[in-house]
Amino acid sequence: MGTVLVLADDLTGATELGGIALRFGLQVRICHNLIQTPKTDVVILNTNNRALHRGEVLKNLEDLFKDFDCQCYDFVYLKFDSALRGFIDFETSWYLKKFKRQKLLFCPINPLLKRVIQNGVYLIDGVPIHETSFKDDPEFPIQFGEIDRNLGGEWLTLPVENLNGTQGKIIIEADDFTDLKKLAKLVTPDTLFAGAGAFFTALLEDRYQSSSNQHKIIPKPDIIICGSTHDQSREWLKAQDEKVKVVWDGLDYEIVYRLIAIKRSGRIPVFAYSDVVEGSPKYLRHRMGHVISLFLETCPCNELFIEGGSTASAILKILGVDTLIPEQEILPGLVRSKVPDLNLYISMKPGSYSWGNIAF
Fold it and tell me: What was the pLDDT predicted at 210?
């Protein structure tokens, strides 16, 4: 496959694919710009578009790809949310023009999470997506079961077997790994590929041998930061010990002293938003990042655990971190990365993914 460029619209999506690449023994770098492209097998650019307002996305893309040579990479993959959040229709159209391709195949399914497409409807564990907690997403509420209606724009929805002779933007109707493996064999120079982690896995499996050299350790976090409103995240939060849980209204910076006190007692603070907060998600992420910055000034840390890609991106921006080196896939979606030149590791996952059986 040669050198791979992944364009991810949020940070946990970027780290998730970094973790997948590690399974195949590939070297990975996650960056926030393409000014100094690292020499590595897989470069993952976090565009962070999902955290922006719709009117900001075009300028962000133009700035990121200014003076960029589209021929630098042998393969390009567009990483989007498997729950369809983000500006997927706009971004895919822009990338088609930028990379001068005739066709884009979009397959966001994730069979491991029981997220599939059947008869044009996106199902999560058999339930149409607009009837799940994704309907209540604060920034991208899912309104329809039909995937093309959620995306907007002009799309075809077709099974893998019916792709011959097609052009334009195509949603792949698929519900298992067999479909993904078939799709992975359809790489042509005129086609862009887009989707979630499962499709990327199939593409790598078709071209690389799996590696079993990852040294599995479960690091002990210095703090756990929960920036997601997903049902699974909130249920996990409810189950945590009240003595270590710090639930924030988004207003009072004095909350940092509570985090410091828990840390100094030898326990792991769990920091999250309350169910009722004031302010836009972007504003709240920025404020949470400042709280963490204040916390780290008093309590230097080596291991941060962060849930939620936009929250993680806001925190890293405030900390001045612009590059990550994925080193370990702890669980699917939960990836531990090193910050270059610092004794700091950051483990991240999307809010809709589980912490598994990790005992904190």
Answer: 87
